[in-house]
Amino acid sequence: MTQVEDDIVTEFPLTIYINEEEFATMVCTPAHLEEMVIGFLASEGVIRFQREIKNFKIDEEQGFAYIEIEGKINTQRDFSKRFIGSCCGKSRQFYFQNDVQTTKTSTSKTTITADQCIKLMDMMQATSHVFKGTGGVHNAAICTGDEMIVGRADIGRHNALDKLYGHCLLNQISVRDKVLVFSGRISSEVMTKAAKIGVGIVLSKSAPTDLAIDLAHDLNITAVGFIRGGSFNVYSHPERIHQ
């Protein structure tokens, strides 16, 4: 038996208070916490713009985030309540009630080439230093067709996406013409998050689920999976991918 030192990813609980009332606890990787909280609040429909936040403070030592926003929020609202209903007037269904109010159908006109799909995935993977060191995080990036604008990592795939969303809100980056590149499986949760962010193309090195593909069709999002070794599969709206 040989003893060696190994890098281990940090798991960190962060409890969010809004207007002095407890709202949610997130288990995350303790980096880019302000971005994550702002992206999460926007994703949940609590805020639409960063300017709606009057005060923001994070106590990393104790694991608390204190946010004061304009107006009131119903902290008793059940954000995880099951919802059965149509998606964008069509046949598909969301799992959760709040997603109906915050998920947007993409209006993106952006197109990219097959080579760009592969290069963007390689670019994100090459900059995923936390994953290389620990193997314990999900990676995600917001890109143009030619370059990566920002990349984030977290133990939770939804947290990584919230960090991207928060970064774009804080820096007033328009995402309608951007591409979301993701390291993991495209679940319905990931597809819903992508729609909330507002991108029209989602690239992944892994597979989508059946519900994710259904949502992608209905939300006008191009879903590309299994980007590996110079090939990939396009599951929805292939008109955005060309030679």
Could you describe the 3D structure shown?
With 243 residues, the protein is of the alpha/beta class. It has 2 domains: 12-69, Ubiquitin-like (UB roll), CATH 3.10.20; 103-242, 3-Layer(aba) Sandwich (Cytidine Deaminase, domain 2). The chain contains 7 helices and 12 strands. It has a 6-stranded mixed sheet with strand order 7-6-8-9-10-11, sandwiched between helices. It has a 4-stranded mixed sheet with strand order 2-1-4-3, covered by helices on one side. A two-stranded parallel ribbon has the order 5-12. α1 (33-43) crosses α5 (157-170), α5 runs parallel beside α6 (188-197) and α6 (188-197) runs parallel beside α7 (210-218). The termini are far apart. This is Sulfur carrier protein FdhD.
